[in-house]
Amino acid sequence: MARRLEGWMWILVVLALGAAAGFWRSGSRQGPEVAPAAPPVSSEASSMREPPLLSNRAAYLPAQCYAVTQDTPGGRRHNGCFACHQTPRAPNFTDDSDIQTVLPVARSASENLWTHVLRPPAPVEMPKGALLAWVRSNNYQDEQGNLRLAAALRKRPSAWEGDGDGQWEGYIPDCWFRPDAEGFDRAPDGRLSGWRAFAYAPFPGMFWPTNGSMGDVFLRLPEAFRQDREGHESEAIYRINLAIVEAFIRRVDVPLAPVDERELGVDLDGDGRLGTAERVAFLWPPEPGRSFHYVGKAAELDRGRDGWPAAGLYPRGTEFLHSLRYLDVEEGEVRMAARMKELRYMRKTRWLTYGELQMAAEAEVLEKSRQPDTLKTVLGDVERGMGTGTGWVMQGFIEDAAGALRPQTVEETAACIGCHGGVGATTDSTFSFARKLDAGGAPHGGWYHWGARGLKGIPEPKRADGQGEYAHWLEQVGGGDDYRSNGEVQARFFQKDGSLQPRAVQALSQDISTLLLPSPGRALMLNRAYLALVRSQRFERGRDVLLGAPPKVHPRLEQDGATGIDEPVSPGWQTPELAASGSL
Description:
Radius of gyration: 23 Å
Helix content: 25-40%
Protein name: Cytochrome c domain-containing protein
Largest sheet: 9 strands, antiparallel
Region (Disordered): 27-48, 550-584
Number of strands: 15
């Protein structure tokens, strides 16, 4: 706790200095010296006043938190906790790295209600041909290319409504999932939808295809970011604004096609003059006097309400769309199937400054210390989704028993809040875009869909200390998933003594598919196992697919019980020097 408070004091000093110097300059306009008051919450969140009734009041606590971290006292430690619970990078001020060593779970959340993890249901028996036909059928679009789910929502089925007003007030899917070579989603007539797909390194653990699903992610910035100053749609302007967002989320310079800074009135490359820029330079803290801002119509937005380029923050109105798919097998190769298991949506509804985010994190720590048995309050409804408490609203759609996509229940969506509503690993409550493939080395700058190029040949992401991220995770966990039930990864990557196989680690460093993709046989079994969950429609009991050895999972946690892990593992972004200093 002392280290956490020391880090917060350091950030307060930085914020004070930044405010005194003028936090940002944009042309002739100076950024506010004092953080503006938080804007009113959006209409999506404004009516989310009453906590919903949940059968599992701690549904936001993921099933992975119940994974066994030490089989026997004094035995080997299995630390999958560090992937999510870690020392954060500002403006994420949720330092929950202590959870790696001690579990501060409320007593009412100690019982593991994720019974599908404790006792996985038997996979559905289905012949290979019928199974492949099923996963290749499209439950998002019909044969004419129309969006099935959007049409169903516009019909406003009464069973899906939360307030009975005859109108669906939540997100209506408008992505065509027809990305061009550079990831831009296009309608059948060629128009841009604003969504753009990007390739990224999948988050370690249960998000790997070998553990059940393949996924894709699309990003969309608000309309003003896609328009020139006259309000006309401009793909060129959109590319620049996307590059600015990428630079400040990934904290790297991002290459650009040559652009005239004088026309935009912005010093993109940070060289102190307006000329021809071939990159967006990530310079943080901001340099006094540098003319820098979003371009096009977005340059005219209210900075106090909509935001400005700041390290680790998206502008207000940013949207994400994430589909989870079954696994297809064709000619012995495992790839993403057409059929969706889930469609997940996020939208940033509030711009919160560094100071506001820090105060919120501090308030939560104080509340938890005063009332350790108080569960997190989640607000939302079936139509408009759930607020994360960090300025975002989340909504999800999942398969019904017949395979059509339906809105998730409030409790099914609450399961997403635990990770996106406050853990040390996130960047502005998100995971994927900070893990986007590097614009300087990936095809099309990393802007493409997994359907165009698979995972093969992508090098393993590296930690700041030089270690391969995935090999490091395997070493810490001692298995291929948090529950150590993935026997295939166990056989591929581990020796009998539990150490990693050097040849497998070397191959992984050059090609992540050697770890992430399952064999065709396992892929089909994963599909059958998930179909059993779909047919049961009891997703509140868990939606992870487990095959192989019995999962190592606790039926009950001990409040403030020791995990057996002595020291928290440093996050991948932190250099050894920073880790030694204990700084945020």
